[in-house]
Amino acid sequence: MNGCVALLLLLLPTADSLAADQSSPAEQPKVVVGSKSFTESTILAEAATLLAREEGCEAVHRRELGGSLVLWKALLAGDLDLYPDYTGTLLLETLASENLDSVDDLPAALTEQGVGMTQSLGFQNGYAIGMTRERANELSIASISDLREHPDLKFGFSSEFLNREDGWPSLRAKYGLPQRDVVGMEHSLTYPALDSGQLDAIDLFTTDPNIARFDLVALEDDRDHFPEYQAVYLYRLDLEERAPAFVARLKDLEGRVSEEAMTRMNAQVDVESQAESICSCRASRSGWRFSSRCRWACWDRSGAGWGRYRWSSWRPCRRFRASRCWCCWVRRCRCSRSR
Q1: What is the pLDDT of residue 212?
Q2: 64, exposed or middle or buried, with CB in 10 Å at 0-12, 13-18, 19+?
Q3: Are the beta carbons of 302 and 308 closer than 8 angstroms?
Q4: What is the CA radius of gyration of the chain?
Q5: Residue ranges per domain, the chain?
Q6: Whole-angstrom Cα distance, residue 280 to residue 46?
Q7: CATH 3.30.70.20 fits 5-123+229-287, yes or no
């Protein structure tokens, strides 16, 4: 199948949730999901929101609230129940004062704060320093250490990277980088500035689709400055009591999303302008067992061609073949048009 396999496969009702559908209604637990101010976080938060609704929760997604510390404080204060994060960020930024030795120490440290953490979702999205391939080849730069030989280079970094514990200050110190022409910019503006030659190097996320779009290269971190940034969900531990079925479904995502799939989903939002709610329904896992009561997102036909994607209401699917729901596998939903 071309492109990403639907993360919808992971959102389909399990036998337990189907049984719950048939049971008497109960009070819906409220789940508030947060996301940081970048596309990937929004997609992952939207996926968690859909899962929560599938398990009968009253779920709200508070989008793009800010950086890591903003969401962490909101989680501790009870303003959020859940948000996606990365192990490297937790180790070196959020819990920097704990002086943890490794990622293995994170679960215990988080538990003391009343916070739980899933295992890795299956990919990491780490920081890197990037240049255009043309400029890197011109200057024979392949690693971050090579930058020391070119003190006149101009760098442009996101505001968060400029101030993070694992960002520019510690990177400069570890590598002894001499550059002083360093500016802070909105991250989305660094790519065109790099492409036009206004900048020589920027900070990258390794699942960023703009790496391929602008033909960039990520310089080798030859001194291992950046840790692994495995994607995880953080959640308040009391959520295991308030919405245990949702937490169980959330943990079903562990190890299911590949770096390649996440990069494609980011591209579908940033490059193709698709809605995050649709892209959150895609992942890298095929062969999922379907139910004849599959519920789906469809494409609504608009005008002369396929129009803007819109998240449809959940309905039973009429077109059922063996153990696969064909509606989830093709671009055109045939069982719902005009209904």
Answers
A1: 87
A2: middle
A3: yes
A4: 22
A5: 5-123+229-287, 127-218, 289-339
A6: 6
A7: no
Nearest to 337 by CA among 323, 325, 315, 108: 315
Residues 6 or more apart whose Cβ sits within 8 Å of residue 198: 154, 156
CB neighbour list of residue 136: distance below 8 Å, 6 or more residues apart: 142, 217, 219
Give which of 28, 9, 4, 38 is closest to 261, Cα–Cα: 4
- Name the stretches of the chain with pLDDT < 50: 1-6, 8-13, 15, 17-24, 276-280, 282-339
Block residue for tokens 């209904």: 339
Tens of pLDDT, residue by residue over 267-307, are 887 776 555 444 445 442 332 222 223 333 333 333 333 33
Q: Is 58 helix (H, G, I), strand (E, B) or coil?
A: strand
Length of the chain, in residues: 339
Q: Which fold has domain 127-218?
A: D-Maltodextrin-Binding Protein; domain 2 (3.40.190)
d(CA 169, CA 177) in angstroms, rounded, equals 10
* Same-fold call for 5-123+229-287 versus 127-218: yes
